[in-house]
Design a protein that fits this description.
By secondary structure, the chain is α+β, with helices and mostly antiparallel strands. Helices cover about 15% and strands about 30% of the residues.
Length: about 300
């Protein structure tokens, strides 16, 4: 597959870029008006501003829009998504997919800003003729969400919920998670701020963050990170959790109690959960590590939690 490199010259804009390429640089595009998306000052949503594209080829349209996305507008209430401290290293089109490769400083964006920046870029660039979706990379590595799952390709519709609401469908929350101490015998409570799509249940969000492991280097994971959440449902105060088979394989040096109660104590932090029952691939007639039966309902156990001081 032939790819043509095109240098980006945004010196006046102060934006360092090192190449935009596409498969069909001669494809002619008619001049048209697109909506260029910016962040609002409060970092709660994105706002579109009509813009008349002057370029004609796909490559030139992309270059022009990347330049516009780096410029501040006359409206002081708006922030440019490409003016927030990171740089675009390259962009290229493969088929109908636009690949946008940015540098490591992108990771320094706050969770809220990251989602808004991503939404603004995708909503703007997916309007280019011949571009159906956008895939973002960081130094060539896949962009991941706050629990380490690859984001993958995105379309404009990625940032619209089922009722057509805009990026405000994303919300922030502080969740409490329980991770192991260095010896793997007790639990520490840890708080984490997350940004999430309101379409996901809070129970699944919390559980996936627990499986992803701690952000604090002094805390230790309790669950095999390959574990998948097959389902999580709360009925009459009981949280029924169904995990994939990887849950039964423990790669960490933690006790069975620590693993089970890291889940139970974490889920019991939710106001609608009093008890937890765990199953694996839909089967609860199991004994976890030959010590703890899974066909019972577990309640919060704060005796395993030690005060912060690590």
């Amino acid at each position: 597959m032939k790819k043509v490199w095109i240098p980006l010259f945004f010196l006046l804009l102060g934006l360092l870029m090192t190449g935009c390429r596409s498969e069909d640089t001669e494809a002619s595009l008619s001049s048209n008006t697109v909506n260029v998306y910016y962040l609002n000052k409060e970092a709660t949503t994105i706002t579109s501003v009509p813009y008349e594209v002057q370029a004609e080829t796909q490559d030139d349209v992309l270059l022009e829009l990347l330049g516009v996305l780096s410029e501040m507008t006359d409206n002081i209430e708006l922030r440019a998504p490409l003016g927030m401290g990171f740089s675009v290293l390259e962009c290229y089109v493969e088929g109908t997919q636009l690949v946008l490769n940015v540098d490591e400083k992108y990771r320094e964006l706050s969770p809220t800003d990251e989602i808004l920046v991503r939404a603004a870029l995708v909503r703007t660039l997916s309007q280019v003729e011949g571009v159906d979706c956008v895939n973002m990379l960081i130094r060539g590595e896949p962009l991941t969400d706050n629990v380490g799952n690859p984001i993958g390709v995105m379309t404009a519709e990625t940032f619209i919920d089922n009722e057509g609401s805009e990026i405000n469908a994303y919300e922030t929350a502080v969740i409490r998670l329980y991770f192991a101490n260095a010896e793997g015998t007790d639990l520490y409570e840890s708080s984490r701020e997350v940004v999430y799509n309101s379409n996901i249940s809070m129970e699944k969000l919390v559980l996936e963050n627990l499986i992803a492991g701690p952000e604090d280097a002094e805390l230790y994971p309790t669950i095999n990170p390959a574990t998948k959440v097959l389902s999580v449902v709360v009925t009459d105060g009981v949280c029924y959790i169904n995990l994939s088979g990887e849950f039964l394989t423990q790669p960490y040096n933690v006790t069975a109690d620590v693993t089970i109660y890291s889940i139970v104590n974490t889920m019991a932090e939710l106001s609608n959960v009093n008890k937890v029952q765990i199953s694996v691939n839909g089967e609860d007639a199991l004994v976890y590590r030959e010590l703890l039966p899974l066909d019972v309902m577990y309640e919060r156990n704060l005796d395993m939690v030690i005060q912060a001081g690590y």
